[in-house]
Write a structure and sequence with these properties.
The protein has 257 residues and is α+β, with helices and mostly antiparallel strands. The protein has four helices and eleven strands; from the N terminus they run E-E-H-H-H-H-E-E-E-E-E-E-E-E-E. Helix 1 runs antiparallel to helix 2 and helix 2 runs antiparallel to helix 3.
Length: 257
């Protein structure tokens, strides 16, 4: 948009006074080509930001991956920062780079002001940093994150024991044991939290699983794993078992009536 409130006409491409879009009651007619609706909603420079806002709002309301607040926050920061950098600063850098490589003597080299350059690289840096933290928090690239709920895993199911007298009634894990693996799949209609209980009675947080989500992790034989709801109420506990000679690992298929 020019300093005079003008945008390119959708038909001829020349700057024309902008007073909105035709479908919202704008009356501007292009003075160059006579187009009665020179501006469209899609061509408005703010339209991509509107789509980003609506898309993120719908995504976080649905939360299809059941991310926690920290993971969602870093995803939001990374999305906004990188999108703004791409829309505002990337064209400037590209234009400056092309002018620098241009062999035309009549074309003056474009240099980005230092302040704009610092703002651009700062926005890009924090956007990429937030993206990196998001990937770490969500474990989105972890093989265990996606393999646990796939049909065809070679597993045997562990028996769950109901917690009837509070967490003090749950047996503690041994100090150590032979290495093994354990998997969790939530088949309940509510999210669950998975923790393990060490030999001192201290709970260690593992993950939160939404309905039909799963996760695998390393464990040791005899290790006690506790499943609780969003209120922290312990529901069932499981004891990790050794993998079978043919490689099947113990898996928790959590259900709750």
């Amino acid at each position: 948009m020019s300093p005079f409130g003008e945008l390119p006409c959708r038909k001829c491409g020349k700057l024309t006074r902008y007073d909105g879009v035709g479908i919202l009651g704008a009356t501007t007619v292009c003075k160059h080509c006579g187009c009665k609706k020179p501006h469209t909603l899609r061509a408005n420079p703010l339209f991509p930001y509107f789509l980003l806002f609506v898309g993120l709002l719908v995504f976080f309301l649905i939360n299809p991956f059941d991310w926690d607040d920290d993971t969602s926050t870093f995803f939001l920061i990374a999305s906004v920062f990188l999108f703004v950098w791409y829309k505002l600063f990337w064209p400037i850098h590209l234009f400056a780079w092309k002018s620098k490589r241009s062999k035309s003597k009549d074309e003056e080299e474009i240099k980005i002001p230092r302040g704009w350059g610092c703002l651009s690289y700062g926005l890009l840096f924090f956007g990429l940093l937030s993206l990196l933290i998001f990937c770490s928090e969500s474990e989105i690239f972890s093989p265990d994150k996606w393999s646990s709920s796939q049909v065809g895993d070679y597993v045997f199911y562990l028996s769950g024991h109901e917690v009837t007298d509070g967490i003090d009634s749950v047996p503690l894990s041994p100090v150590d044991g032979n290495a093994t693996k354990i998997g969790f799949v939530n088949r309940a209609e509510f999210p669950i939290h998975v923790r393990w209980l060490d030999h001192n009675g201290t709970l260690h947080y593992f993950t939160r699983l939404g309905q039909d989500h799963g996760a695998n992790t390393e464990a040791f034989v005899g290790q006690t794993w506790l499943v609780s709801d969003d209120n922290g109420t312990p529901l069932l506990y499981y004891i990790a078992e050794e993998e079978t000679p043919d490689g099947a690992r113990g898996s928790v298929n959590f259900t709750w009536d």
